[in-house]
Amino acid sequence: MENNGNLIVISGFSGAGKGTVVKKLVEKYGYSLSVSATTRAPRPGEVDGKDYFFKTTDEFRNMIDYNGFIEWAQYVENYYGTPRRFVEDELRKGSTVLLEIEVQGAKNVLSQYPDAILLFITTKDVETLKERLSGRGSETPEQVQKRIRRAAEEVKDIDVYEYVVVNDDLDTCVEDVQAIIKARSCERHRQSELIQTLKSGLQSV
Ligand code: 5GP
């Protein structure tokens, strides 16, 4: 498949603040953000089509059946998936596309897009993670507990990720991620057009 853009996969513990990091990256650098589909109920303030495409389980299964997802996974009690069309179109246009997904999805994306950058965002320690999850107030104590247990599972897969970025200070974290994305776009093998132009220009000097 033709693929000129950059695919950036951002994962992290629930509560590590990766959603905020991703929003900042989109605002500040204009990256394309893939909006996932989910069977989870909207949290207060979440908007359908902007935060997620909120689906019934049947609708979600339908999308699986017609190959509508690049990847999908079950997380705690719900399904989440990355709609295929948007990502493929944006990559074809040469855009940098951000996916904010969990680790099963990240592995799945990597197997299809070996060039994808996989980043893991974490709090600086477990205490901060617990505080942030409980302080959010959107989950019941049981759900918070489930998410902590899920984090314990996820950390076992940390080797899947090329980069681990601490989100202690939001702006620093955003700039760290941006530096990684920038470095990737400067890789020599991504600059073949420029290099060709330089070579042919210099031949006639
Ligand atoms: P939340 O319910 O907190 O919005 O998301 C729960 C988890 O699902 C987070 O780790 C989030 O990154 C992940 N997630 C969101 N969208 C997708 C998706 O399209 N695919 C996968 N695999 N995970 C997703």
Please provide a written account of the structure:
- Helix 1 (about 20-30) crosses helix 7 (about 170-185) and helix 5 (about 125-135) packs antiparallel against helix 6.
- The model has no long low-confidence stretch (mean pLDDT about 95).
- It contains eight helices and nine strands.
- A hairpin with a 2-residue loop joins strand 5 (about 70-75) and strand 6.
- The protein is about 45% helix and about 20% strand.
- By secondary structure, it is α/β, with parallel strands linked by helices.
- It has helices at about 20-30, 55-65, 85-95, 105-110, 125-135, 140-155, 170-185, 190-205, and strands at about 5-10, 30-35, 35-40, 55, 70-75, 80-85, 95-100, 115-120, 165.
- Strands 2-7-1-8-9 form a five-stranded parallel β-sheet, sandwiched between helices. A four-stranded mixed β-sheet has the order 4-3-6-5.
- Bound molecules: guanosine-5'-monophosphate.
- Guanosine-5'-monophosphate binds near residues 36, 40, 73 and 104.
- Guanosine-5'-monophosphate binds near residues 82 and 104.
In short:
The protein is α/β, with parallel strands linked by helices and 205 residues long.
